[in-house]
Amino acid sequence: MATLDLNQVSKSFGAAKVLHDINLAIEDKEFVVFVGPSGCGKSTLLRIIAGLEEATTGSIIINGEDVSTAHPVDRGISMVFQSYALYPHLTVYENIAFPLRVQKLPKPELEEAVARAADILQLTDKLQLKPGQLSGGQRQRVAIGRSIVRNPKIFLFDEPLSNLDAALRGDMRVELSQLHKQLDATMVYVTHDQIEAMTMADRIVVLKDGRVEQFGSPMDLYHHPATRFVASFIGQPNMNFVPATVTGTKGGLAVDLEGGHQMVLPVDTTGVAKGDPVEVGIRPEDVALGESGLDISIRVLERLGGATITYGTIGSAETRFCSSLAGNAPIEQGTNMTLTIAPESCHVFNANGDVLSRLTVPEQTR
Ligand SMILES: Nc1ncnc2c1ncn2[C@@H]1O[C@H](COP(=O)(O)OP(=O)(O)OP(=O)(O)O)[C@@H](O)[C@H]1O
């Protein structure tokens, strides 16, 4: 059982402020992923939770108890690093048992704890090997085993899969999700890989320049991004951003998109006026081949079997547009196509990059 609350946490290194007033309430048994570009402060925040770094201001609360000044060992937290940090001269068994030897745990309990962790992580037949005899994925499992035996309240992971190749990363993602369910533990996981975030998280914290841009479930961030930044970070292929000009604000937002296509979008028009520039966010998967809509010149076409991905530009303009269409879509590279777009699937961002909230359709007109 462990809840984790961060209250007004900030961090400066000398004159450089790298975290700004972070407030987060992480629930018991939640799998929360910190995601964001390099340098946004993910690892620093994780290290502050672990007690490896001291916050400049603010507090860290675990299960209602303020641990801001507690020693890392006394926080009931275990951290798994990208680099595995295994002892090369010790066997898998001794690597996993190491924290328990430090705690001077009696031999029968130690043996039981190592056997249980090895069983969970399918390492039982590897216990007598040295780390050098293991694959990258197996080494990372040993590092996780060393965390499990400590029976922590909270697991922290700092980019644990980034040293693995793509196929192994995919397998380990599934294993980590299963482990989370099996252990029923609170987990905080740092990555810059949005696929890892989307597939593993109960909730995602998107960080930008040391600030929380948005905290929500993967589907919440995908369907309701609060900012252009979140919209651009979540979803693969990335969302398209089409420059547009506001032509009216009555009964929705009337816009003139680059390339000449006009639409009326069901969003709140508070704060925008005729003539304002906006950007219309359109996900590649939210378009379909049609008779009228956006005219696209197809520059590159990728047939993946199940889907066809096109990379092109809008009309003769330079603005790029990516679409994800049916595997057998009747289109060819070097030609033009017209894409229809449902207005309710569009996201609109103002000049500050904030989303204009969607208007909910009244019940009786649905
Ligand atoms: N010990 C330190 N001294 C000075 N600056 C630091 C220190 N540690 C981190 N920083 C700075 O704090 C900022 C956040 O770093 P941090 O490592 O937390 O980012 P990150 O989001 O984890 O990045 P990455 O994905 O590249 O690991 C960066 O600008 C970094 O240069």
TrEMBL record:
Query: What keywords would UniProt list here?
Result: ATP-binding, Cell inner membrane, Cell membrane, Membrane, Nucleotide-binding, Transport
User: Would the keyword Cell cycle be found if you checked this record's keyword annotation?
Assistant: no
Q: Which InterPro entries match?
A: AAA+_ATPase (IPR003593), ABC_transporter-like_ATP-bd (IPR003439), ABC_transporter-like_CS (IPR017871), ABC_transpr_MalK-like (IPR015855), ABC_transpr_MalK/UgpC-like (IPR047641), Mo/tungstate-bd_C_term_dom (IPR008995), NA-bd_OB-fold (IPR012340), OB_MalK-like (IPR040582)
User: Which Pfam families does the record cross-reference, listed alphabetically?
Assistant: ABC_tran (PF00005), OB_MalK (PF17912)
Q: Which residues form a coiled coil?
A: none
Q: Does the keyword RNA-binding apply?
A: no
Give the GO cellular component terms, alphabetically: ATP-binding cassette (ABC) transporter complex, substrate-binding subunit-containing; maltose transport complex
GO MF annotations for this entry?
ABC-type maltose transporter activity; ATP binding; ATP hydrolysis activity
All copies of the ABC transporter domain together span 4-234
Alphabetized NCBIfam families for the sequence: PRK11650.1
Family from the record: Belongs to the ABC transporter superfamily.
By what name is this protein known?
Sugar ABC transporter ATP-binding protein
Tell me the organism's taxonomic lineage: Bacteria, Pseudomonadati, Pseudomonadota, Alphaproteobacteria, Rhodobacterales
